Amino acid sequence: MNPLISIQILNWNRADDTQRAIRSAMKQTYDNLEIVVIDNGSTDHSVKLTKENFPQIKIIELEKNYGCPGGRNMGIQYCNGEYIFYLDNDGILHKDAVKNAYESITAFPGTGIVTGVVYEFSSPSEINPNCAIRSNVKYFYNDFQGGICMHDKKIYAKTGLYPAHFIYGAEEYYMSLKVFENDFSIIKDESVILWHKQSNIARNRSQELTSRFFNKLYTCITLYPNINAIQFAIYFVPVYIKHAYNHGILLYFLKKLPRAYLRNIWLALKNRNPISKTAYKRFHSNERVYVKQPDNKLTFSF
Fold first, then answer.
1. pTM of the complete model
2. Which class would CATH give 5-197?
């Protein structure tokens, strides 16, 4: 029998979207699954609606919004599977997504994370969870998408979890560096497919981008080798001022910069645990490296 895989769906005030994500999880062709919904302190009718529609699944109600990485961290303890498949609550999976991710994570020894590809949609008519897979290409990668990925739960004993104080942004970058430091690999599998809804909810884009920028600063000062951490700290200000300008959030970023810069540098130095130079080089040189299938062939399907 195949091992148990937990599909973890993190929800915050997206009741209707989450119902659709759960349905796509329930229609997976992999035959040994549990679905775990982690509700991040929603104030809408998310929990009530989910309990009414899916009384058989596990729903964990957190008392407040711990952010995306924090919510996922807290949800891990409720996932009983050997592997955890993280599903965005505004996403819909191809019916074979979990099965294909499991085949990749077990086919290539040392793989800690498998991630997939995302197709944006604005109308449900654009989605076909039963469609033929267009590409079976797999390649080693140095990053992953948090809302469509499978983690071997054993990696956390070495990598640890996401930084608990992150609310949004750069948590995948942090985890990827830890994965490389502990000699695991990340594979991107183009047969693991998620349709992701283009958000109609008003979001504070300035806040989200700025949070991502400063979380990246924390990550690099915490984990980069000495010389690389110093270099990043020096060029962060001019480079990310330019990024903020290009994204149209310059005034907001400049207002946050002095305090957030010093705070993240201080916190990073307090928690500093640099990865090796070897892991750093492997991470930054890990271009798209195609991997062979178990039958030693690269397969393309169009």
1. 0.92
2. alpha beta
